[in-house]
Write a structure and sequence with these properties.
- The protein is an alpha/beta fold.
- 35% of the residues lie in helices and 17% in strands.
- It has nine helices and ten strands.
- Helix 1 packs antiparallel against helix 3, helix 1 packs across helix 9 and helix 5 packs antiparallel against helix 6.
- It starts with a strand and ends in a 10-residue tail after the last helix.
- 36% of the residues are buried.
């Protein structure tokens, strides 16, 4: 059966989405369209490129994730870190991450959005210069770009640019104006809305969401003791507020909630065994969900 899939952001926690994909495949479902933010954008793009769950598990287990973080020679000095944060706006450039994604996509013959079926992939990012959410490739003409010629790997890198961890990615308009693009999770970490039809249209197929956290009604409270705790609480609130407001009880019936430890978000040194546990968690949670999932009748759009 054909379905559409939406994947939430979550950094390294996104490894659990590989297990979720494996469970979906085992149940005989096929993704016709995908969308995602940050780690979810990576998963969405790899699925549309043609990767299956088994392939992605092998790739991840054979990849040293820490090597995706390009380090400055003076990175070990605390003063240098503050310098990079103040002047460069982030600890890591994200170049190595983009290159890794680019190589994976190229192996399947995908480089730009034009290499994919039209409308099959949506990637969410945040334009902090203009103060607005961006949907790649839909919003690219507003910046003077031809959507079909824009790099999918670059869009993923922009969507995954966690503030202060990765440097904001510049996007230059046709008149030379620079826009800073960061993690889409700031404005929508779980863009379930992206495939929702207008009131006068009917859905093409069921939309299944994968959220790397507990149910929105059971989000743990933040303990704020210092400024770092407050920043984390502010960032988490920004990520959750928009999406939680949008998702009602009816939509929640089509969401797989995968509660993963929040501290794993930037744990790029996670060992192989830890990765396997995340994959297994995603598989188990999704299998359990699909075993009792009741799909409403879906009528074709007029």
């Amino acid at each position: 059966m054909d379905i559409d899939g939406v994947f939430s952001g979550g950094g390294v926690k996104g490894i659990a989405l590989v297990g979720a994909l494996q469970a979906v495949e085992k149940k005989g479902f096929t993704f016709k369209r995908t969308a995602g933010t940050s780690a979810g954008a990576l998963m969405a793009s790899l699925i549309m490129a043609g990767y299956n769950g088994s392939e992605l598990e092998s790739i991840l287990l054979d990849t040293d994730l820490s090597k995706l973080l390009d380090r400055n020679p003076g990175f070990k000095f605390p003063l240098m870190r503050w310098f990079m944060l103040y002047w460069k706006l982030g600890l890591y450039s994200g170049k190595d991450l983009e290159m890794w994604v680019c190589e994976l996509l190229r192996a399947k013959g995908i480089e730009t959005f034009g290499d994919l079926p039209e409308g099959s992939l949506k990637i969410i990012a945040s334009d902090i210069t203009k103060g607005r959410l961006i949907v790649f490739p839909d919003d690219l003409p507003q910046y003077g770009f031809v959507p079909e010629k824009f790099s999918v790997a670059k869009a993923v890198r922009m969507s995954a640019s966690l503030p202060f961890f990765f440097k904001p990615q510049p996007l230059y308009t046709i008149d030379g104006k620079k826009h800073y693009i960061v993690d889409g999770g700031i404005l929508s970490n779980f863009p379930l809305w992206v495939f929702q039809p207008s009131d006068w249209h009917k859905p093409l197929r069921p939309v299944l969401g994968f959220q790397l956290s507990a149910n929105f009604d059971n989000v743990p409270e933040h303990k704020i003791i210092n400024a770092i705790d407050m920043y984390q609480a502010l960032f988490d609130t920004m990520k959750q507020a928009h999406d939680a407001r949008y998702i009602d009880n009816q939509k929640a019936k089509n969401i797989v909630f995968i509660p993963v430890n929040q501290s794993l978000t930037t744990e790029f040194k996670l060992e192989r065994q830890g990765q396997k546990k995340l994959i297994q968690l995603g598989k188990e949670r999704t299998t359990h969900f699909l075993d009792k999932w009741r799909k409403l009748p879906i009528e074709k759009a007029d």
